[in-house]
Design goal:
With about 475 residues, this protein is α/β, with parallel strands linked by helices. Among the domains are: about 230 residues, Aminopeptidase (3-Layer(aba) Sandwich), CATH 3.40.630; about 55 residues, no CATH class. It contains 14 helices and 19 strands. The strands form 5 sheets. It has a 6-stranded mixed beta sheet. A 4-stranded mixed beta sheet has the order 16-9-8-18, with helices on both faces. Strand 1 and strand 2 form a beta hairpin. Helix 1 runs antiparallel to helix 14 and helix 2 crosses helix 4. It is globular, with a radius of gyration of 23 Å.
């Protein structure tokens, strides 16, 4: 058992004094400091091509400088072609140069949100019924704010950790065809962000139907994100003289075929361990069905029960879904062109070309052309489950949420961890936020986070950092 160092003791002392963040008030100075940073970050629009990650990074940089970071400790970066897609790297030097750094990675950009679709202004942090509502309250500005706030506190503590801690907050993670700051750093500034391991978004806690905490999933791997275009064409003509051959109808048939198709179940060591643990914790019909699937992935009846849970459904297989449609050129003309974007999340070990071939077989229409239009994704293997890392998570979780078991998991979505795993740097996600699978509003309307999870989450991360920084 490793002894807690000076930094660890200091951070733990801060964490142990934490109290639940009161609704409508941030009573203590440390609560107010975090909330002010979080609110400013959430209310800074960082939608690609609309807002500015560069502005958000500069605001965080100003807070870091006020806390005592020098110019040599901070790197604000962007490129001429994407001046608003910048980010920031901050470095808190450790006292022992022999210990390799750890990197805290987060993204500043958010998915687009239209005011006319939302109940509330998506770029105003609104407190209501025990939740904070706004775009980015969860993905990923809550964690980015925790990273920045912790870096500030550690600097203000005047006692450096043994291990150097780096923080990189970047842009472009949410948009496939945009400039991606994590990718740019990995390719152009590898020494700046060099680390023994990375802590990033991902993972998280699962609640049962009654709100009881079941388990904490640690993300050690993820699927590959891939986009394919379906294209149907036709000579068209006057809409007053329709014909059965119609590009929109042909495309619609192809999209419906994808909707009705399920890729086969595949299992890895990571997903098998996670599903085994989940079956034990949830019990009942769902737990029994998971156990049956683990024994026989061809069990269709068990699959139907398990796949009612969207998170478990995506853990079992490659998934493909239509996300964008565009068709026609005039209100009174037969369409000459119709396109759909099919977004796939590919199970590890499967090639994008094979998935496209399978989609072609499923739609069975030579008149619909398929094209792989993916950018910004690389294959990556799962990170090893380091015993010291898992033990540190267990200890932090045991002090914040005693009795919650920790298990490895594969993310159904993609993250910027891929750029580090691709370069053989282990990357992990171990978010302490517990939610029901049905209450995940990331990327959707009225994104929200329970206020009650924020203070325990901050405490958990500080304990974890203290442990990993020794």
């Amino acid at each position: 058992m490793m002894r807690m160092g000076i930094l660890a003791a200091g951070v733990a002392a801060i964490a142990m004094t934490a109290m639940p963040m009161a609704a409508g008030a941030q009573a203590r100075p440390d609560q107010k400091q975090f909330f002010d940073l979080y609110k400013q970050l959430v209310e800074t629009n960082t939608v690609v091509d609309v807002g500015s990650c560069t502005q958000a990074a500069a605001q965080i940089g100003a807070r870091l400088k006020a806390a005592g970071y020098g110019d040599a400790d901070l790197t604000l970066f962007s490129v001429p072609d994407h001046p608003k897609d910048g980010g920031i790297v901050a470095i808190l030097k450790g006292s022992d140069a022999r210990i390799k750094p750890m990197l805290l990675l987060g993204h500043l950009d958010v998915v687009a949100a239209k005011r006319e679709d939302w109940t509330r202004d998506p770029f105003t942090l609104i407190e209501e019924n025990g939740y904070y509502y706004a775009r980015g309250t969860v993905d990923d500005k809550a964690m980015a704010a925790v990273w920045a706030d912790t870096m500030i506190r550690l600097k203000q503590a005047k006692t450096p950790p043994k291990r150097t801690i780096k923080m990189a907050l970047t842009c472009g993670e949410e948009t496939t065809f945009a400039f991606n700051g994590a990718e740019w750093l990995a390719k152009n500034k590898p020494d700046l962000i060099a680390a023994e391991f990375v802590l990033n978004e991902g993972g998280g806690g699962r609640l049962d139907a009654n709100g009881k905490r079941e388990l904490l999933a640690v993300q050690v791997g993820e699927k590959a994100a891939q986009n394919y275009t379906f294209l149907a064409t036709n000579p068209g003509g006057h809409s007053s003289q329709p014909t059965p051959e119609n590009a929109i109808y042909e495309l619609a048939d192809a999209v419906k075929a994808v909707q009705g198709y399920e890729f086969p179940i595949h299992l890895t060591d990571t997903t098998r361990a996670f599903l085994t643990a989940t079956a034990q914790k949830v019990g009942g019909q769902l737990g029994d069905s998971i156990t049956r699937l683990l024994a026989n992935p061809e069990d269709k009846a068990a699959d139907a029960i398990v796949s009612q849970d969207k998170a478990l459904h995506s853990t079992l297989r490659t998934t493909c879904v239509a996300t964008l449609l565009q068709a026609g050129h005039a209100e009174n003309a037969l369409p000459q062109r119709a396109t759909a974007n099919i977004n796939c999340r590919i199970f590890p070990g499967h090639k994008p070309a094979d998935i496209m071939a399978e989609l072609g077989r499923v739609i069975d229409d030579p008149g619909v052309k398929l094209e792989d239009v993916s950018e910004g994704s690389v294959p990556n293997d799962a990170s090893p489950m380091r015993p010291d890392f898992i033990a540190a998570i267990d200890r932090a979780m045991g002090k914040v949420y005693p009795g919650v078991p920790v298990f490895p998991a594969m993310a159904s979505g993609a993250s910027d961890s891929m750029w580090f795993r691709y370069h053989h740097v282990p990357s992990y996600g171990a978010s302490p936020t517990f939610i029901k699978p049905s209450e995940d509003f990331s990327h959707g309307l009225n994104e929200r986070t329970p206020i009650s999870t924020i203070e325990p989450g901050i405490r958990y991360y500080r304990l974890l950092f203290a442990d990993l920084s020794k």
